[in-house]
Specification:
Elements (H helix, E strand, L loop, with lengths): L1 H14 L34 H10 L2 E6 L5 E4 L2 H8 L19 E7 L2 E11 L2 E8 L2 E7 L2 H15 L2
Antiparallel strand pairs: 1-2, 1-3, 3-4, 4-5, 5-6
Length: about 160
């Protein structure tokens, strides 16, 4: 029952967003998070090509978020909510620091007409705020999370922790 309430809250949060969906061109580029200590962060993967992101923006009809350590999962099926999620993806590749680990906080699947067409891992800690996109089960692209995405996710996590 509690998970159902979380799901309804999250769905309502997305549905009531005042922000109009923006195209990926309109999203601001995020600034990289400062590196931690001695081992430098490295850009291990290039940015997902704009054409791929635009294809997902235009055609994706279902997104599923599975959080590893949170008491929620999230599924989006309404076009404005789906398109708003792509505003979270910066065009700037992420600098990956070893302290971020190999696993993020959530796995995201992107579907078109029932077929999974893309997958990503979301990293969201103090010095690690980015997506790693997978192809054939292997990391291929990495992108920072935009300032709008960081603000949205921080508010989402705060609302979950207060319930």
């Amino acid at each position: 029952m509690k998970n159902l309430l979380y799901f309804l809250f999250i769905t309502l949060f997305f549905a009531c967003s005042n922000a109009e969906p923006k195209t990926p061109e309109e999203a601001q580029v995020a600034t990289p998070a400062p590196a931690v200590a001695a081992t430098p962060a490295q850009v291990l993967y290039p940015s997902i090509p704009f054409e791929d992101l635009k294809y997902l923006y235009d055609n994706c009809d279902f997104i599923d978020y599975v959080y590893y350590d949170l008491p929620i999962s999230m599924s989006l099926s309404e076009k404005p909510s789906i398109q708003n999620t792509f505003v979270q993806v910066s065009q700037q590749p992420a600098s990956v620091h070893p302290s971020c680990g190999k696993s993020g906080i959530a796995r995201i699947t992107y579907q078109i007409k029932g077929d999974i067409v893309a997958e990503s891992e979301m990293f969201f800690t103090d010095n690690c705020k980015y997506f790693v996109f997978y192809e054939d089960g292997k990391p291929k692209y990495s992108n920072l999370i935009t300032p709008q995405g960081i603000e949205y996710l921080e508010n989402l996590f705060k609302s979950i922790s207060t319930q």
